[in-house]
Design brief:
The chain is mainly α. It folds into two domains: about 5-15 and about 20-30 and about 120-360, no CATH class; about 395-530, no CATH class. Helix content is about 60%, strand content about 5%. The protein contains 24 helices and four strands. The chain has helices at about 5-10, 20-35, 45-60, 80-115, 125-135, 145-165, 175-185, 190-205, 220-235, 245-250, 255-260, 275-290, 295-310, 315-340, 340-350, 360-385, 385-395, 400-410, 420-425, 445-455, 460-465, 480-485, 515-520, 525-530; strands spanning about 415, 470-475, 490-495, 500-505. It has a four-stranded mixed sheet, with helices on one face. Helix 4 packs antiparallel against helix 5 (about 125-135) and helix 8 crosses helix 13 (about 295-310). The protein starts with a helix and ends with a helix.
Length: about 525
Amino acid sequence: MNLKASFARISTTPMAISTSWRWLVPVVLFSLVFIMAARSPVDSDLWWHLRAGEETWKTSRPLLVDSFSYTQAGTGWINHSWLSQVGLYLLYASGGYLALSIAISLLAMLSLILVYAQMEAPPLLRAFAIVLAGVVAAPVWSARPQLISLLLFALVAYLLFLFKRRRIDHLWLIAPVFILWSNLHGGYVLGLLLIASMIGGEFFNHLLGRQGAEILAWKGIARLGFWLVVAGLVAAINPNGAAMWLIPFKTVNVGALQSFISEWSSPDFHQLAQQPFLWMLVLTFAAASLSTEKLDGSDLFSVVGFAYLGFMARRNFGPFALVAAPVLARHFYALLLEHQSRWKALGERWHLQKTSPPAVHSVLNLTLAAVMIMAAMTKAYLVSQPSVVEKYNQAVFPVQAVSWIESNQPGGNLFNDYNWGGYLVWRLRNVPVFVDGRTDLYDDELLADYLHTLAGEDGWEETLDEFGVGMVLIPNGSGLDRALAQTEGWSRKYADELAVIYVRDSSAVGGMLEITEQGVEMEPPVAWLTEK
């Protein structure tokens, strides 16, 4: 079935959407996407990205050696997001939380606009697929370079769509896109996988003997292969050089990612927020199996491939949603065309041009569009108010505990919670952290030592001694909190509902650890702070 011809035919029937709705639906739809994406710019990794961006901007060179931790100080750091970090810092420095919030919404909206442009279906059906894709991708919409990867992923998908389904060859743009991508985020490998999935899918089409205008000839497949190689090569054009090729392997090989970091864990479908991924996958294959439109090999390989990545790690929900939405819309539309007669009477009954004069209809449409745009701007403004963001920060990060450290300046190296590391990098400029969100910088051995120590398991004392830890900032009630509370040589100096601070007593300091004089002379804690 030729969907393009079918759409032209159905657009002349009463079931068709009025001309004004052809612009109204996208305006309302993407205003809604903007509203969905507008959120307080809070993320545990945002803070170290801001700090790195600040250092890069002020020194005029990318930060490629670790200076934020003492456990990896001086170690080479493959900082694949250096350019995004500069952008985030400049946004924050010039426009604060509001600028970051607007940037999140715009990036999410632009990525879905590119997906919308790939759909071969009427506006309302496109809108359904886009909203579903937005719900699936929403968990990864945050103020991080990862969101830029989604936009560039959607751009590569659009270039491939033009090449395969419109016979418009703009593949030369792949080279500059991947050069930019490899300087913005290490997720460029998603683009390589997308191109590879189309090549594999087209091989599959030829293997099955399929023919048609949308099946790429061998020459077209060879051209895709050429640009796949080019994309991989130009990824090394950045300050990290060929080390950028190692990013996918360094990331995947860190075992702590799957066992400790939630976004790298497999989805838990007992949680409602993660179920839309499953809904979209089921709907896509249900529509493809029920419609007479044959499932194209490229669509099959991309949907299955990125669904597999989604099952491996929930951070891959976004790429899956972007490749599945056009496939869902295409087959859902084909399914509706097969039952067009059943919908004709309903279309005549609900056809808007018969219920109101054209002038009134236009005014209503413009009013609705204006209201949606104003709602989007209002949402971005409200969620980015400093009072709102700071309230969230105080609930998630040890804001008051950090203020105590700034005031008292206890000595010795700091052992800190992983999820707070980025915030500490931003706030405590002169206190290196034990660990932070740059997981690819820390090896499995160090992360394992961190996890065992935080849990207060056997060997925690040896870890603190080995790294010369004199101060501990950890969650209240953690295993290490309970262990330190019963250990001589450590004193709880601060506690609130979220965090506790322990400082090593000067009498317990061995030859490898020195406590500053200021730390020795600290006032004993108030009684209620030491009791839990």
